[in-house]
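Sequence only, no structure available. Ideas?
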Amino acid sequence: MSVEDSHIDRELCGDNAAPYVLGALTDYEHEAFRLHLDSCAVCREEVAALQVVASALPAVAPQLNAGPELKRRVMASVHEDVGSSEAEERALSARSRRGPRLAWLQWRPLLASGALAAAAVVIAVLAIFSGGGGSGGARVIHAEVIPAHARASLRVSGGHGQLDISGMPQTPAQRVYEVWIKRSGGPQPTDALFTVTAKGDATVGVPGSLNGVKVVMVTTEPLGGSKVPTSSPVIVARLS
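Reply:
I predicted one. C-alpha cells follow.
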C-alpha cells in the first residue's frame, strides 16, 4: 500500500461502518471494508456498536398495517430519494472527469450518508409492508437455548432468517453475542453482533441466504466479534 493510500485510509476510517452494517455497500466495498476491519480496532468497535442499534430497531418499531394511501406516499418518497441519489451520482461523475482524485474524497462522505439514508428508507418500507401481513408461509424453528429459562426461535422465509430471542442474560462488559452459520465443516462468522435489552430480548436478522445452511448458532465473543468461536454456543437452531 502506498503512503498516499495509507493517508486516505486514515482520513476515511469509519466512513463505511454504517452502510456496512445496513448492507448498503457494493460487494467490492463490503469485502474491502471487511478486510480493513481485521487491522482496525476503531472500526470494529464502531461496527459492533452500530450493529447493536440496528438489531434493536425491529424490536422497538411498532408493526402497523398500513393503508393504501400511506403505502402510496411512502413509495412516492422512495422514488423521489432514488431520483435524488441518481442526480448526485451524475454530478459526481461530471466533477470527477474535471478534477483529480481529491474530488472523490470530497464527495465520498456525502455519498456514504446518502447510502445510509436510502437504506433506512428501504428498511422503513419493508417494515410498513410486512406489518399485519401474516406469516407469509414462514417456517419457525424452535432453538436449543442455554440458559433453560430463555427462549429463541428462527423464522425462515424466502431463504432468509430472523432470530427472535427472549430471556437471555446480558453479555459481560466488552463482549457481545455473535451469530454463526454452519453448512459443512466448522461454523462461519457473520456480521451480526448484538446485545439484548434489560428483559433479555432481541430480534436479529441472519445475514445472507440460508440456502444450504444446516445450523444457525449464537456465541458470546469479544467486542468486535471473532473469526472462530471462543465459547460454546448458547443458542442453536437446526434447519436440518
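The radius of gyration is 20 Å.
Hope that gets you unstuck.
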